[in-house]
């Protein structure tokens, strides 16, 4: 086994919404610089699992261990944890009343209390990285979906998170805009960013993923190297799912 | 014809008087609106917590205000306040009107906050901003923008309702009209004159609100 640091460890996680048991005994580990890809049918619990990892949903049972510390939502300052766990949403959730640059510097300035000039400098580097320097003063409504998502990625990165969670980051995009977002994500992965990605982009999963997790009905059915699973799924359920999406 | 001339005579002759009264009307309505906004913000916050007892307090407040005539509220609050503490009539009336407007503003602000996509709060939280910082920096600015037309409406309602202050002796627009009308045994003319002032000032504020709305729409 390699001895990379475990950034997030999920142990026997269970979560229900009312009578609906959405996550059932989920165990998973996300190691430093790894890209873990979550796939599964609609309603299988992928988003819920991701949202439990940054405590937008609070688990019912089980443990979430972040960077070696078991996080108890009752006693831990969740804001501190969330500073280190970036999240990118399907619908971007940019702040529409703020410009691109203001979106990116908001949290560093207001949460981390970084000098504005320094935050702007760092934000410009990030915007450069996602190729949107020239949009710095635009409002989100003036951007394409792909541009919005790249701003959202830059906004998340501005907090210098230890791990980034992506919940179907390209699902709301017109097909021709998917590529630019995937390129940005690939670049991030190649720079060693730890990532957990819920996606239907199997090409991305195969190319970038270190581990693939297939979920069905709140359970992890199969996991392993994406290339292995794609070419030779062990479980019938996985095979059935892949035959539909590949 | 002669009555029309008489009307303009009075309109011009009472200009100074009514301008002074207009200033008082504006002072009452603007101050009441600002304080009402604070009430509204406070109670809207309580309500969006969804905590049962807090929501019940807010609903009770709104229920009282909606279920009783403003005149009654003003009288109760005015005599209640002035019997408890020594405050100027102006302040007592303004507070009463603020209490009234606050209930309507509570509902307006609550509605506006709840109309903001919940992804906004989630984005703020996921950046480590926490509930209150996200509320202040992200949700409220958007909610206020969205509420501006309703704020404008409510302000104009308050402006007209401030005429009730005359019933406890305030010499604002309507108070002056009543007094002068009875002094000159010419009620109708003075009512028409004061009507012109109300029309004009409401017109100006309506235009102003439209202007702000339009500018915000452009910057979006
Ligand atoms: N806040 C909630 N309240 C009640 N039920 C919820 C809530 N969030 C999710 N669910 C339900 O939990 C189940 C799992 O939802 P989840 O969003 O995690 O699935 P998913 O795998 O992300 O699906 P999709 O591919 O459609 O995004 C679904 O049946 C969903 O309806
Ligand atoms: Mg989902």
UniProtKB/TrEMBL annotation, chain B:
Residue ranges annotated as transmembrane are: 17-46, 85-105, 187-206
PROSITE patterns, per the entry: ABC_TM1 (PS50928)
Primary location recorded for the protein, binned into one broad class? membrane
Xref: SUPFAM superfamilies: MetI-like (SSF161098)
* UniProt cross-references to Pfam families, sorted A to Z: BPD_transp_1
Report keywords, A-Z. Cell membrane, Membrane, Transmembrane, Transmembrane helix, Transport
Q: Could you tell me which residue ranges the ABC transmembrane type-1 domain spans? A: 22-209
Q: Where in the cell is it found?
A: Cell membrane
Membrane-topology descriptor: Multi-pass membrane protein
**Family per UniProt?**
Belongs to the binding-protein-dependent transport system permease family.
Q: What is this protein called?
A: Amino acid ABC transporter permease
Q: In the record, what lineage is assigned to the organism producing the protein?
A: Bacteria, Bacillati, Bacillota, Bacilli, Bacillales
């Amino acid at each position: 086994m390699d001895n990379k640091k475990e950034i997030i460890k999920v142990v026997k996680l269970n979560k229900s919404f009312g009578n609906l048991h959405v996550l059932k005994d989920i165990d998973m580990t996300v190691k430093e610089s790894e890209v873990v890809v979550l796939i599964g049918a609609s309603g299988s619990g992928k988003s819920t699992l991701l949202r439990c990892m940054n405590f937008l949903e609070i688990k019912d049972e089980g443990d979430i261990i972040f960077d070696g510390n078991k996080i108890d939502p009752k006693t831990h300052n969740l804001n501190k944890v969330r500073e280190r766990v970036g999240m990118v949403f399907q619908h971007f959730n940019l702040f529409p009343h703020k410009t691109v640059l203001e979106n990116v510097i908001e949290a560093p300035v207001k949460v981390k209390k970084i000098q504005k000039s320094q935050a702007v400098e760092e934000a410009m580097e990030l915007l450069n990285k996602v190729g949107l320097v020239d949009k710095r003063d635009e409002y989100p409504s003036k951007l394409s979906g792909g541009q919005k998502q790249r701003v959202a990625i830059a906004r998340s990165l501005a907090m210098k998170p230890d791990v980034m969670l992506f919940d179907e980051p390209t699902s709301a995009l017109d097909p021709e805009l998917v590529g630019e977002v995937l390129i940005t994500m690939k670049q991030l992965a190649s720079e060693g960013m730890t990532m957990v990605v819920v996606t239907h982009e199997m090409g991305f999963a195969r190319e970038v993923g270190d581990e693939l997790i297939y979920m069905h009905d709140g359970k992890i059915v199969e996991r392993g190297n994406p290339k292995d699973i794609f070419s030779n799924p062990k479980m019938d359920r996985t095979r059935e799912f892949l035959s539909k999406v590949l | 014809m002669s009555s029309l001339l008489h009307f303009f005579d009075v309109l011009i002759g009472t200009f100074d008087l009514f301008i002074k009264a207009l200033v008082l009307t504006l002072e009452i309505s603007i101050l009441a609106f600002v304080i009402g906004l604070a009430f509204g913000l406070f109670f809207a916050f309580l309500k969006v917590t969804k905590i049962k007892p807090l929501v019940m307090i807010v609903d009770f407040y709104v229920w009282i205000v909606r279920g009783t005539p403003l005149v009654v509220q003003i009288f109760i609050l005015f005599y209640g306040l002035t019997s408890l503490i020594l405050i100027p009539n102006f302040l007592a009336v303004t507070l009463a009107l603020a209490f009234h407007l606050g209930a309507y503003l509570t509902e307006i602000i609550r509605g506006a906050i709840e109309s903001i996509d919940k992804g906004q709060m989630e984005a703020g939280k996921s950046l480590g901003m926490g509930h209150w910082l996200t509320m202040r920096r992200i949700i409220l600015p958007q909610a206020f923008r969205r509420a501006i037309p309703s704020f404008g409406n409510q302000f104009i309602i308050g402006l007209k309702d401030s005429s009730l202050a005359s019933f406890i002796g305030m010499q604002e627009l309507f108070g002056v009209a009543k007094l002068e009308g009875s002094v000159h045994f010419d009620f109708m003319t003075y009512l028409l004159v004061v009507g012109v002032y109300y029309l004009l000032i409401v017109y100006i504020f309506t235009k102003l609100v439209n202007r702000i709305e339009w500018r915000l729409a452009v910057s979006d």
